[in-house]
TrEMBL record:
Compartment(s): Membrane
GO CC annotation, single: membrane
Protein name: Uncharacterized protein
Pfam families: Bax1-I
Membrane-traversing stretches: 51-71, 91-109, 121-141, 147-165, 177-195, 201-218, 238-260
The keyword Transmembrane is annotated on this UniProt entry: yes
Amino acid sequence: MPKAPEGPYTPINEKPNYNSNNVIEAKVVNNINNDFTLLTPISSSEVRTNFVSKVYLVLWLQLMVTSIFIGCCNQLEPVQKFMLSPIGTSLMFPVVILLLTMTCMLSCYQDTLRRKPYSYIYLSVFTLLMSYIVGYTGIAYKLNTLLLSGISTLSIFSGLSIYAIQTKYDYTDKGGYLLAGLFGLVLLSIFVSFTNYNTLNIVYAVGGSVLFSFYIVYDTQLIVGGEHNKIMFHIDDYVLAAVSLYLDVINLFLMILRLLNGERE
C-alpha cells in the first residue's frame, strides 16, 4: 500500500512572543506567494483546534466510506460477483496506477490541493480508489475476522493517538528512520510474495504493524503539535495530513488481517 510522501513540513526554531499579559501571541507566517499560512507553535489555540478538527473529520469520513464498502463486498453477492468478474479484476491495474499517481501528487501539486474544490475532489477520488482495492479483503476474509481486525485497529489507533499527544518524547524528527523502514518493508513484501514460508509472512505482518504504529504516532504529532513542534504540517495541508493518517490506519488494518489469517475457504 502507498504511503504519503514526506513533507511539506515546517521546521520550527522560533520562540513564542509574549504580550504584556504573558499570553502567547498568535503569529501568521506567509510564503513568498502569500497563498497559505503555516501552523507554528505560536499559532493561536483556535487556529490549531480548527486545523486538527478538520483533519480528523476528513479521516473519519474516509474510514467510514471504506468500512461500508468492505462490508458490502463481504455481504452482498452482486458486489462480490462484479469484483471477481473480468471487468472488476481488470480495473485493479488502472486503479493502482492512479492511486500511486495521486500519492505522488501530494508532493508535486501542494498549492493546488490547498484550494477548494480541488482538495475535496482529490480526497473523494483517493478514498474511492483505496476503498476499491481494500474491498477485496471483504471478499477474501470472514466477517468475524474483519470485525476483529477493525476493532483491533481502532483500539490501537486510539491508544497511539493518546500516547502521541501525551508523551513528552518528540517523534517529529524521526521521519527519515520511518522512511528507511518503509523501504525495507517493501523489499520484504516482494520476497514474501514469492515464498510460502508462514514464519516469514508472520515476521512481515508484525514488522508492518509495528512500522505503521510508529507512523500513526509520527503523523499525529505532526498534526496536533503542542510540545512536539520540531516539524509540523502547514495549516492548509489538511489534505496531506488526513491522507497520511488514513494510509497509516488502512495499512495497519491490512497487517493485522495478515496476522489473524482468517481467510474464507
